[in-house]
Design brief:
Elements (H helix, E strand, L loop, with lengths): L3 H13 L2 H12 L1 H29 L9 H37 L9 H16 L7 H72 L3 H23 L1 H10 L1
Length: about 250
Amino acid sequence: MPSVGSVSSRIIGSITNLKPVQKCCNFFKKDPEKAIAYSTIASVVGKDGIGCYMYVKQSLNNEKIPEDKRKFVAALDLTNGVLMIAAQLALFFGIRKLNEPLFNKIFNKTFDKAGQVFKTIATQIRKQQREAGETVSRKLTLKKEYNKIRKDCLDTFKFVTELAAATIIAKRVIVPFIATPLAQKVENKMGAKIESKNKANNKSEKSEDVKPDKTKETAQDTKKIAEEKSSESDNTNLLKKYTNKVNK
């Protein structure tokens, strides 16, 4: 019987041979910074998407919320979730286009475009190597190392600023700033609609209460007519009059 380790290794090995997985691995090898950033924002947005679905479903089936207001609460949850996802994606890709110029502006004294900082650093390193009796590095080698350090710093800066913009500014600042007044407007509109509907129902109920009962009126009219007819019949009945006179 094969062990658990051998079975799991076969399963993992078969998964890694799939074309989508290989493509994803190659993407991480080719551009780790972009791959990590995209996978991170995808996980954040995916989590918020699932959370939005769960909130909407819970609001529609929450017995603690009055039945006539469940759809309204669910609509607010859906609006908030969509705004959150859209704002995070917008700020993520927006900052991604702006963070390199921002990086160059902030760290201009460390990684300047003119290369004066590099010349100063390279001169100091080569001087220290001569004084220590070491092999003096070529400027081209130092330039490659300098560019690598700059790229690592830029990648870290981009990763931090993009995620901070998406998860802090968009999610905690912009979305509540938009969603709160929007929810208030929707709530006021929904409240006015419900109030108008209630007034219409009350007016209809009052009109039904004031409306005369035709059946009752008909019965009363029939009884009155019968009494009148009976009275008229008594007055015109000569035999009865004569009988009454005789009795008297």
